[in-house]
């Protein structure tokens, strides 16, 4: 495989899908002022002229002239060493002067590979949203303040990918552009900063592992009048998890100019017209998945043995409930299988009959399954099962017919990481 490119296996896919679904829930299901979009990845190349990506979307690249010949981002090296001449952080060698390197992947559209067919893989999902602003306004019966949300792959030819799935060249973004009357922009900027922090906390990230960092004036992107990063305390230190930006009317004005379309809101009652301002919460699905995993990881001693577990929010857990027969005989496997087949209609469930019961519990703990259901000899007499809680290890007895409704109710209950206690 390529370096810094990762494939997600079974539980990884389920976990990241849950992260994206929770984002959609917060943006669409639990609000009525945002609509969904799935725009093309390869857009008209003029898009990137209008957005400023062709001119300005570059990072300063330096290369070691010493032994190791490695490449670095000059701005990252400067963060570690604010003053003086920079040297290679690996071998101490001299560095080349910085060269600006455009981060967009280039390809060709159609069979002829000439300059006229050059296109780019999108480096952010946001621009597809701006291109659809007029469409959404005309068809969705929304008016500012309203938003358009999109989840999908973006591509950046990063100079220094790394830290596992934190920075890769192919990644998924979860972005929402919220169009507001110009004078309401500051208020909505504050709203989205609060909302986005709350989203991570409600899904179990410990509040002391999150902070909001407002950008200094000289850090702001060309389009932004204010930006704050939601930062997470990753194992390598505080790093950006998500950006919330006040983009003003930069994007709609630029796209109007390059496309010749009027991108405005006209109030039919008052005749008022204006170019909406945009507040943008822009998150990474892979980076959020990494943060949820890191925050949930725990090791503890239980009866003299180490237990490794993911204390994931139940809604993020890849599997919600595991159904296990205590022994592989006396009708227990058949009974357990029937319970599993019933539960999986309501939520992702697993049936596991292989190995000792202790080992099967531990396997589920490691993938963060919040609940375990055990079928034992008593089940065969009275149709009750043991319900085990991943975090407290409490075991209670519950009637089989109550299992489904009980677990569904637990899935919508507020949840806090027991690591807080
Ligand atoms: N539309 C604005 C925008 O794209 P960004 O801060 O460049 O802003 C938003 O990206 C989020 O996308 C980041 O906070 C991060 O979570 C994710 N992201 C950006 N580059 C990434 C990369 N190379 N690998 C993984 N995630 C990345």
Helices and strands in order:
Layout: H1 10-29, E1 34-37, H2 46-51, H3 53-56, E2 58-63, E3 71-73, H4 74-80, E4 99-102, E5 106-108, E6 118-120, H5 126-131, H6 133-139, E7 146-155, E8 170-180, H7 185-202, E9 210-214, E10 226-234, E11 237-248, H8 250-259, E12 265-266, E13 273-274, E14 277-284, H9 285-296, E15 297-302, E16 305-310, E17 321-325, H10 332-343, E18 349-351, H11 357-367, E19 371-375, H12 377-382, E20 384-389, E21 395-399, H13 400-412
Bound molecules: glycyl-adenosine-5'-phosphate.
The site of glycyl-adenosine-5'-phosphate has 19 residues, from strand 8, strand 11, strand 14 and helix 9.
What would your notes on this structure say?
The protein has 421 residues and is of the alpha+beta class. The protein is built from 13 helices and 21 strands. It has helices at 10-29, 46-51, 53-56, 74-80, 126-131, 133-139, 185-202, 250-259, 285-296, 332-343, 357-367, 377-382, 400-412; strands spanning 34-37, 58-63, 71-73, 99-102, 106-108, 118-120, 146-155, 170-180, 210-214, 226-234, 237-248, 265-266, 273-274, 277-284, 297-302, 305-310, 321-325, 349-351, 371-375, 384-389, 395-399. β15 (297-302) and β16 form a beta hairpin. Bound molecules: glycyl-adenosine-5'-phosphate (GAP). Glycyl-adenosine-5'-phosphate binds at residues 124, 126, 156, 158, 167-168, 171, 173, 175, 240-243, 280, 282-284, 286-287.
Strand element count? 21
Strand content: 25-35%
* Parts with pLDDT < 50 across at least 5 consecutive residues: none
Q: Count every helix, treating DSSP H or I runs of 4 or more residues as helices.
A: 13
Largest sheet: 7 strands, mixed
Structural class: alpha+beta
Tertiary shape: globular
Bound molecules: glycyl-adenosine-5'-phosphate
- Biggest sheet strand order reads 1-7-8-14-11-10-9
Fraction of residues in H or I helices: 25-40%
N- to C-terminal distance: 42 Å
- What average pLDDT do the residues reach? 95
């Amino acid at each position: 495989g390529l370096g810094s490119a990762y494939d997600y296996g079974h539980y990884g896919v389920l976990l990241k899908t849950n992260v994206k679904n929770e984002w959609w829930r917060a943006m669409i299901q639990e609000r009525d002022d945002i609509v969904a979009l799935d725009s093309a990845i390869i857009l008209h190349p003029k898009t990137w002229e209008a957005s400023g990506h062709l001119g300005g979307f570059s990072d300063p690249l330096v290369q070691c002239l010493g032994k190791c010949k490695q490449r670095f981002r000059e701005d990252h090296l400067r963060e570690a060493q604010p003053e003086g001449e920079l040297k290679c952080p690996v071998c101490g060698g001299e560095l080349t002067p910085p060269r600006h390197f455009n981060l967009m992947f280039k390809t060709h559209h159609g069979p002829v590979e000439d300059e006229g067919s050059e296109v780019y893989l999108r480096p952010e999902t946001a621009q597809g949203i701006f291109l659809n602003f007029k469409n959404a306004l005309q068809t969705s019966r929304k008016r500012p303040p309203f938003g358009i949300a999109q989840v999908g792959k973006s591509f950046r030819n990063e100079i220094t990918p790394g830290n596992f799935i934190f920075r890769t060249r192919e990644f998924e973004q979860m972005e929402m552009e919220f169009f507001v009357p110009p004078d309401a922009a500051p208020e909505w900027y504050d709203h989205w900063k609060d909302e986005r922090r709350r989203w991570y906390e409600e899904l179990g990230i410990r509040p002391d592992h999150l902070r909001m960092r407002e950008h200094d004036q000289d850090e702001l992107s060309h389009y932004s009048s204010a930006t704050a990063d939601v930062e997470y305390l990753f194992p390598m230190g505080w790093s950006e998890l998500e950006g919330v930006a006040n983009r003003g009317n930069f994007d709609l004005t630029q796209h109007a100019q390059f496309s010749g379309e009027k991108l405005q809101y006209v109030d039919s009652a008052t005749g008022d017209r204006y170019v909406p301002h945009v507040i943008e919460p822009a998150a990474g699905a892979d980076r959020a998945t990494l943060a949820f995993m890191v925050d949930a990881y725990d090791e503890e001693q239980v009866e003299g043995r180490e237990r490794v577990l993911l204390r994931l929010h139940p809604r993020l857990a890849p599997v919600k409930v595991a159904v296990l027969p205590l022994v592989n005989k006396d009708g227990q496997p058949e009974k357990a299988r029937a319970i599993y087949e019933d539960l999986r209609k309501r939520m992702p469930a697993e049936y596991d009959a292989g190995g000792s019961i202790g080992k099967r519990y531990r396997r589920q703990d490691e993938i963060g399954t919040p609940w375990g259901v055990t079928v034992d000899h008593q089940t065969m007499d009275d149709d009750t099962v043991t319900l085990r809680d991943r975090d407290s290890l409490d075991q209670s007895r519950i009637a089989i017919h109550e299992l489904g409704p009980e677990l569904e109710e637990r899935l919508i209950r507020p949840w806090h990481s027991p690591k807080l206690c």
